[in-house]
Known about the structure:
The protein is α/β, with parallel strands linked by helices. The protein has a single domain (9-246), classed as 3-Layer(aba) Sandwich (Rossmann fold). It has ten helices and seven strands. The longest helix has 21 residues, at 100-120. The chain starts with 8 loop residues before the first strand and ends in a 7-residue tail after the last strand. Bound molecules: nicotinamide-adenine-dinucleotide. Residues 13-14, 16-20, 38-40, 58-61, 86-89, 109, 135, 137, 180, 182-183, 185-188 line the site of nicotinamide-adenine-dinucleotide.
Amino acid sequence: MAQRFAGKRVLVTGGASGIGQATAELFAAEGATVAIGDIDGAGAKAMAERLGGVAFAYDARDPAAAAKLVSDVESALGGIDILLNIAGIMTWGRIEETDPAAWQRTLDINLSGPFYLTQAALEPLKASKGNIVNVASAGGIHPVYGTSAYGISKAGVIALTKSTSLEWARHGIRVNAIAPGGVATPMHEKSTAGGGVDPAIFTEAAGRNMPKLTDREACTPAEIAAAIAYLASDDARYATGTVLILDGGQTTG
Ligand SMILES: NC(=O)c1ccc[n+]([C@@H]2O[C@H](COP(=O)([O-])OP(=O)(O)OC[C@H]3O[C@@H](n4cnc5c(N)ncnc54)[C@H](O)[C@@H]3O)[C@@H](O)[C@H]2O)c1
């Protein structure tokens, strides 16, 4: 296996599950030392022990937790070369059904989380001339019926990516995003199983613009991890402000 990340210190949020887990595994296999920040502290610890990295319980909603995570990772690893904002939640519900608490929680975790961690990581990334990869979603580009809060939060992640790339090019920091369609993870399974929402929403969504979650195969977390690794590697040294879409064509129609 190539060793594109030998000697790199990589902070991965959401590394206890799904895409974050597959990404932590790939970076570790390619030589990185991985730090995992996740609200599931036990899951993060188990992963980090398996990969020879470090883990910290962290809640993406809390700006103070973002600052503490960065300082804990700096103390443990001596710096940060790559920040991967992967933690997130899915929220189903038509606009009129989305209560303020669900709206706020979705924005807090999916959008404010990466914003706070980006702010907190400026100095270490400046020092390493590092880079950031954010995980947005195809739903942030082309709305998926019945997931407005989620899609809006992910559209915000795309705007965050572009804004940060614009402002931090002067520090030599690249900032990119990927926009996956359906990825076979616990989030996806819960979602397609109903996720506690009115099952009619799936039928309606399938009849509109969401073939992916109903009658087409999802991709694997490892395929998304490979795209994240490309953007974070020197192979992509000319890429900043890029949003790489991997959605099986979901956003083309
Ligand atoms: N699975 C898909 O189909 C899909 C498609 C497009 C984008 N995404 C995005 O990919 C990312 C990873 O999703 P996944 O499918 O691997 O989901 P997942 O549910 O398997 O993993 C999400 C991880 O985020 C962590 N997390 C949740 N809330 C948190 C919080 N408040 N603070 C810190 N960590 C928290 C969870 O503990 C978990 O480890 C998310 O941002 C998601 O929106 C997923």
